[in-house]
Amino acid sequence: MTNSAVIGLGFGDEGKGRVVNWLCNTDPTNLNIRFSGGHQAGHHAFLNSAVSHVFSNFGSGTFQGVPTYISKFCTIDPIGIINEWDILRDKCPGINPILYINPKCPVVTPFDKIHNQIMENKNKHGTCGVGFGATLEREENHYSLLAEDLLIPSILKIKLELIADYYDNSNKYNINEVMQDFDLFNQIENIRIVKPDLKQYPNKVFEGSQGILLDQDCGFFPHVTRSNTTTQNILKMGQTIDHVFLVTRAYQTRHGNGPMTNESLYLSAATNKHEQNFSDGAQGDFRTSVLDLDLLKYAMMKEFSHSHSTTKYTLVITCLDLLWGYEFTENGKVIVCKNEMDFINKISKRLPRRIKNIYLSREAFGDMGIFIKGDRNAPF
Between the CA atoms of 335, 336, 341 and 345, what dihedral angle is there, to the nearest 10 degrees? Predict the structure, then answer.
C-alpha cells in the first residue's frame, strides 16, 4: 500500500503529467487524485508515439486505465469535462475514463470565465483566463455553486441566475443553454458526483497542479494561483504520503507575467517539439530561462515544512536532453558544467539531504520519456 505525490517545483509546466502517467504505468495504481487547482491544469501525457493528450479535467493516469478523483480542493468545469470526455473517446476508443467528483467542488460557469478574462486584461497577473480565480472569489463572496447542486435542476437554475446578476451578466449568456450543457454533463454514466472511500484504494497517485512557486501562500503575490500547491491539501484529506516526486525541467519556465530570474542569461536549449505552451491567449508569453537552484531549494523548503519525517523525496529533472549547454545559478553566480553528467552531479551535491534520489527524463526517448534513477550520493 503506497501513496505517491507529484509536485511541481517551479511556476508550472514542469512535466507533472508525464511523471504521473509513468508512475501509473510502472506501479499498480488504483486511483489518480487531483488535490489542488482545478480545470486550468494542462498536463501532457503520452499513450504511445501516435497518441498524446493535455489533461485538464481528468487525471494524467487516464491512459493507463486509472480512474480520477477530483477532491474538494479543486474546481470543476462541467462544459470542459464534456468536451474533454469526447476528445479522449475519439482519440482512444478503448479508453473509458472514470471520474469521481467530490460533492463540495466549486463549479465554474461561463460567467466566471468571461469575468476572469476581463480582469486579466486589466490586471495582467498571468491567469489562464478559464475562470478558476473568479470562481473561488465568487465562492468567498457566498455566491456558491457546488458539484452537488448540479443534481437538483431547480436549485441550479436559481443559483445560475444569481451568479449572472453577480457579474451583471454583461455577456448575456443564456441561462437555459447553460442548464442544457450541465444536464448533458449529468448524463455521462462514468462521471459520478460522489466522495469515494479512499480506504478502498490502497495505491494512489496524487497529481499536483501548477508549481510551488505559484502557491498562494509561498509564491510571489500577486502573481500566484488561488490554491495550495504543496502536499498540505493531501494531509488535510487525512492521507499519508510515502513518496513525493518533485518535478522541474532542466531550465526554468513561466507562462504569463510575474517574477522569474535569469532571463538576461542565454539559455542553451533546443526547442521542445512536444511543447504545449505558447505565447497566446489570456495567459500571455511563455518564458524560459536558465535553471535557478535558489528557487528550487526555496520551493523544497516550503514543501518539507508540511511533510512527515518518514516521507521519501525524489527530484525529477525533465527535458534534460533539450539542453546543449549546461549551466545553472546559485546565489546569483552562474555555475558552468562540462556536460550532462557534470550538470547533474553539481546539482546533486547542492540539494537538501531529504532528496534521496534523482530521476532524469529525456524527452526524445520513448513515448513517456525515459526515467533514469540515480542515488544522489553517488556519481551518475
Answer: -20
Instruction: Please tell me the distance from the alpha carbon of residue 130 to that of residue 300, in angstroms, as a whole number.
Output: 29
Cα–Cα dist 179/130, whole Å: 19
Res 230 pLDDT > 80: yes
pLDDT of the residue at 280: 61
Specify the pLDDT at position 129. 62
- CA dist 360 → 47, 231, 247, 317, 353 (Å): 20, 22, 10, 5, 18
Give the model's pLDDT for residue 316: 93
> Into which CATH architecture does domain 3-101+195-375 fall?
3-Layer(aba) Sandwich (3.40)
C-alpha–C-alpha distance, residues 316 and 8, integer Å: 10
CATH 1.10.3470 applies to domain 110-191: no
* DSSP 8-state code for residue 351: S
DSSP assignment letter at 274: T
Quick one: how far is CA 55 from the chain centroid?
A: 9
- Which residues neighbour 102 within 8 Å (Cβ) at sequence distance 6 or greater? 69, 70, 71, 72, 74, 147, 193, 195
For residue 215, give the DSSP letter. -
Tell whether the model's pLDDT for residue 376 goes beyond 60.
no
Burial of 187 (0-12, 13-18, 19+ CB in 10 A): exposed
- H/E run at residue 360: strand 355-362
Spell out the domain ranges in the chain.
3-101+195-375, 110-191
156: exposed, middle or buried (Cβ count in 10 Å: 0-12, 13-18, 19+): buried
286-289/99-101 β-pairing? unpaired
What's the rounded Cα separation, in Å, for the pair 315 and 296?
A: 10
- State the number of CA atoms in the 13 A half-sphere of 49 facing the CB: 3
> What are the grid coordinates assigned to 278, written together?
505558447
222: preceding bond cis by omega (within 30 degrees): yes
